[in-house]
Amino acid sequence: MHPLIQQLLSQGPVITDGAWGTELQARGLGAGESPDLWNLTHPELVGEVAAAYVAAGSQVILTNTFGANRIRLSEQAAGDQTTEINARGVEISLKAAAGRARVFASIGPTGKLLMNGDVTEDELRAAFREQARALADARADALVVETMSDLAEAEVAVSAARETGLPVVACMVFDSGKEKDRTMMGNTPEQAVKALAGAGADVIGANCGQGVAGFGVICQRMRAATDRPIWMKPNAGLPIMVAGLPRYTTTPAEFAGYIPALIKAGASFVGGCCGTRPEFIAAVSQVVRGH
Amino acid sequence: MPDLTQLYDSVVSGDAKATQIITKEALAAGVDPLKLVNEHMVPAMDEVGRRFEANEYFVPELLISARAMKAALELIRPLLIARGDKPVGRVAIGTVKGDLHDIGKNLVASLLEGGGFEVIDLGVNVSPEKFIETVNTKQANIVAMSALLTTTMPSMKTTIDALKEAGVRSKVKVLIGGAPITQKYADEIGADGYSENAVGAVALAKRAVGAA
User: Cβ–Cβ contacts within 10 Å for residue B154, how many?
Assistant: First the structure.
């Protein structure tokens, strides 16, 4: 196990953070605007989100770099700012963490499907290498390959992230199949664990895709398939649409109520994805650590 | 004369090479090309759709079956055109203005092609003007719009309103889809149809042009 991961886990389960996009929208991020560009244009507001999670009890916070790969940034005509956007994203989170939390830098999907010929494997590898390098150079503590629907893309991202020497977390979205235990491409938790471990991920898990209630089984199955630490970041239930906008009805207390079972099922890192806010992390912290 | 049940099987299993070989043999043996499509390949794609809905097939299986279908259609389409048969319909498809997500849109486009439609893929971030221009210059009879974000959904309404203003709304059926879209939203903005997944989108498009 990577020494940093070992050190973090020596004190018991680790609390990560909640959603970023919705927090940025609450601070004025406009419709269809790229959150990542805010690292350059509104660093103080991005810093507020990071600081809110640290204050809520996050021991690990992520970075506002989810979509900061060259492929996605180019769609916003910002491909040439890839390195800068990633570097600033890490800087902002490090500053907010101020030594009280570790900064695990976020690497999201490119939005292109390898199998449909939208992109080549070489293009994917180059994009993830560039982003991982920029995040590592800015002194992120670890890298998180997250919200991946396609195992093939995740494997490329993980192996590119591995080249930096930083610990790598890899997590997939399970939102398909009768039991919502498959990825969009049909892969099971067991297949995901095998492929991600094979690609060199230090920590493996699931995020997004469905509410916290569905994560227990996925966690158990991943736990049974690997001895690597497990990372779980569920959504706050299923959204309902109110006036054309999604609203999550799960409360922080309800969400936190599921966390002990998730830890029992084998999760070592717990936090939230879509619909979770700093109050959710505060409630999780209360349940897990008693404060 | 090849065994045409193998044509069905090769589409269901996504074997593009076999699909093409059997199609070639059947055409050489004088089988009506339309019969190949309607009696063997379309039922095969229906079966693929059924398996997807039953969670037996996932996106990769859908894509390879659509690809097999497309491989055969490449041989068949020129023959149909030569004798004056028209495609099932002509679709102008795109992700709406402000939205850059194209996985869902590409999947629907592939399946529509597999279903015998002629597909004009306008890409992502497509303006209402671009849709209108395509309807006018390419005689598309279906406008298919995709949006992944709740923040970009309103562009669907903007596009429908623009189609009305341009006087071409009645020439096309407007179909919409994407993660945040619901039937209720489709009704609200005056779309002609909504499908919650790519398989349903093909059936919806066929109904829209009266081909099913």
Answer: 17
